[in-house]
Amino acid sequence: MYQEVILDHYKHPHGRGLRDGDAEVHHVNPTCGDEITLRVKYDGDRIADISYEGQGCSISQASASVLNELLVGKELEDAQKIQAAFLELMQSKGKLEPDDAMEEILEDAVAFAGVSKYPARVKCALLSWMAWKDATAQALGESERKTA
Amino acid sequence: MYQEVILDHYKHPHGRGLRDGDAEVHHVNPTCGDEITLRVKYDGDRIADISYEGQGCSISQASASVLNELLVGKELEDAQKIQAAFLELMQSKGKLEPDDAMEEILEDAVAFAGVSKYPARVKCALLSWMAWKDATAQALGESERKTA
Amino acid sequence: MTTLPGLLTASDYNVEAIRKDFPLLDRVVHDGKKIVYLDNAATSQKPRQVLDALTEYYEQHNANVHRGVHVLAEEATALYEGARDKVAAFINAPSRDEVIFTKNASESLNLVANMLGWADEPYRVDRETEIVITEMEHHSNIVPWQLLSQRTGAKLKWFGITDDGRLDLSNIEEIITEKTKIVSFTLVSNIMGTINPVEAIIRRAQQVGALVCIDASQAAPHMVLDVQALQADFVAFTGHKMVGPTGIGVLWGRQELLEDLPPFLGGGEMIETVSMHSSTYAPAPHKFEAGTPPIAQAVGLGAAVDYLSAIGMDKIEAHEHAITAYAMKRLGEIPDLRFIGPDTAENRAATISFTLGDIHPHDVGQVLDEQGIAVRVGHHCARPVCLRYGIPATTRASFYLYSTPGEVDALVDGLEHVRNFFG
Amino acid sequence: MTTLPGLLTASDYNVEAIRKDFPLLDRVVHDGKKIVYLDNAATSQKPRQVLDALTEYYEQHNANVHRGVHVLAEEATALYEGARDKVAAFINAPSRDEVIFTKNASESLNLVANMLGWADEPYRVDRETEIVITEMEHHSNIVPWQLLSQRTGAKLKWFGITDDGRLDLSNIEEIITEKTKIVSFTLVSNIMGTINPVEAIIRRAQQVGALVCIDASQAAPHMVLDVQALQADFVAFTGHKMVGPTGIGVLWGRQELLEDLPPFLGGGEMIETVSMHSSTYAPAPHKFEAGTPPIAQAVGLGAAVDYLSAIGMDKIEAHEHAITAYAMKRLGEIPDLRFIGPDTAENRAATISFTLGDIHPHDVGQVLDEQGIAVRVGHHCARPVCLRYGIPATTRASFYLYSTPGEVDALVDGLEHVRNFFG
Ligand SMILES: Cc1ncc(COP(=O)(O)O)c(C=O)c1O
Ligand SMILES: Cc1ncc(COP(=O)(O)O)c(C=O)c1O
Fold it and tell me: What one-character-per-residue DSSP string does C185-211 give?
């Protein structure tokens, strides 16, 4: 499961640190103590920034880095498509072989395909993505329920 | 376990019915609903009467009848010896082969030897004996604890 | 015996093949008598498939659940949670997260009582409110409510029983009122076999906004159980009566309720995060599963529902109904035999209580046992029913998917012997 | 490796023969790697002898207990109550009636908390009184007391932990006061392995007349447990950590207390007599065992204590101590490895937590798992300890009677690999 790409993101995370944002959320993975504080900044429907700080395993750290890399600069609608694809991949229990179309959407995030075989780690990979979803809902004033 | 003697006592109980007494107790075997109300009458240290009324299985009924037959007319000290011997027999889990000495003390009550193999029935056989012990304690003003 | 009315033919329901799955049914007692096991309402026997699932779990996958990244922990978790999926499907639960594993039905029922005792409004049971049960409940659906009533001041009320062993609902409007917070009753009586009219009770409870808890301990093993069709709020049952292991029970509850109601037992597994000052709780079902759960036993229960489903609950029900009808007919022919409970096979399950003249049930049971026939005698943890009928105890024969007409015949012959013995 | 200091020789303690009793230890994972099972503090593996006892129970004797006159019911009752005798002897209980079977240690601890919450004076916990625990408790010995404190208004206090993983008793007179009703603490920490000084705490508790509850979940499997020598009032532990089945726990309590304290769960088995209006309760232990108990699991636990006793708890303790000392030495040589807890083998059990540089424990555990080594990572249901040391989680290796020096070596090699991988 430890693809080179994942280790790279882990060792050299993108966009780490807390910067100005429209909303801030704090998510915890109670089973392992992974934590993330994440802020989103929107410029209309465009994601201007995703900044974060947290502690956790290589998977959760790398995943937050990939999230930042993939989503910052995107329109909300596109970001949601990416998020949906990532969620699908992570819930596939290792049974989904990423094809070219998926790779186009998910880019570096396809490296997490192997993680989906490990139920205990799926939550690590999803932590920052769930936090982003939650923060977005808050920032844009929706009242979605927290899906920790 | 159903010795002839037991069936006889069951069908033709001795001294059944409630008569005048110095103390009355009511004992219940909660696992099967056997119940007995028992009165003792003392004449000094001599057991003048044991009267009882109850519902229950052949074992508990026959045992009360045997109790009455054996103990009425006895001195308390002798009665306690008989009671102790009966208790020992009933707790023997079928491993005690009544000898002549025991038979001399217990008379008809040795027929209950077979019952001691059946843990669920031992309580039935002991119900009236425990009630007698309790009633005696009350009648003679002792403060023994109930041993239901 | 294959001409028994209603009995499925061997091609539809091969009872001899089923019996071969149950090692205990070959047990020989009292010098060579093959056991005739008619104590299924107390507990059922276990098929090889369930025992194998237990052994395989312990030999190949045993680990603690939910907390590990190693392969055994993941396998054990998948098996445990997989059992939850199976049970959810078995009772047609809308969501797997509505299935809580407990140690037995008694814990499930205590869990409901305690949730409500500690709940906030609108669920809170307190001195202004009322609890409704029935006179035909198992002690496990009486005592938790008595305790709750004592500890909260709520008033405990109950439905009585008619002479023929049915719930007396004639005063339903006085029993279930605007003050009623919870109505808890058994779907099938464990002493009389009565199948209770769920709909009438639920309708009234819904009118007044009371929650409904159904004790399905004697139903889940024997009939199709569909919690959505039942429309109750909670449904409790127990593994050991449905060919599963001891040590496992289930509480199903509606999701919104499980979200809103407070936890009962505290500890590992049921928390989200703990500090010395305060804790937050995991979402249901974990909120209600404190400590290491009965992992192997849940896996065993999963194998049990697989086993029952493969045969088909509808077929099991039909088989038992035919056996019951036959047993009622043959038992009814015995002089002095008095049924305690409905005297027809309609709306009743395969549990038959009776008295035999004035021979005490203990004696009936003992003499049957000497012939290798295992029935239960006593108050069957439903003493109020005995009080109601003015009897100290009953003899109870209860059948299951592996029972045969031949076993009914053995019982009838055995009872003849009892009558002669004490006659 | 036979020259390890303190390791018993094969004639005294044949670890290879012991390993053969445990089928799971032959399990092969991840393409041919034989499992190295170092997650014993979470749960232990089970010997063939225990699995056989379970199977034999179900195949030969299965029936419900305490209520029947038939031969199976009598056999099942004798086996179940026989298990109680075995457990009583194992912990040197003055009376078998002081041994209550629960589903796990968590239920045992909740039982104590709830008994006291519903008790009359002098035991009653209420807003005038205080509860004392420690910062190194398992969540199962924290949350029940937090709930009790919230629900009664009693104040919850606790002992802190020193930098080297010991209880800080320096302020014992301020923590345990005249207001203290109950002191509940763990004999052995499940995260740090610390063995706590029982005597000092008991002495102070006795001075002020507080009850003492000991969580022996991590002690009962590993050392001689003598409840009379401990002088506590309650002792809780759990079957699955001591080579027994899941689904069974124990609460030992002093007889007078069990007589005086109120029941917790209500239902069948725990009653003396029931009417719709009120019920009376059976004497202990049955008063606290509502519903069909975990019968097979109790029988399995009986077989487990037989198994452990046949080897000898003193020998198991000595074996584990030698393994622990060796592991501490070898792990201590790894750069960046920091022990969380005592850094010597004295007064500590065979459970070792550590961090490895800034590699997250999840990653440590995963890479070890790929090599077939099963350790636990996380907060081990003792999150306050992680908070105390400012870490999110630890990696924990825990040994048992079947652990070998070779498994310690495998762990050390595995950790080297982890360091290189993330280095
Ligand atoms: C110290 C301690 N206490 C209590 C428990 C709870 O035991 P169980 O999960 O079996 O209820 C555990 C183990 O999980 C433990 O290690
Ligand atoms: C109707 C009913 N409810 C509840 C129970 C309690 O089940 P358990 O003893 O498994 O808790 C039983 C069986 O004993 C029962 O028959």
Answer: EESB-TTT-BBP-HHHHHHHHHHHT-E
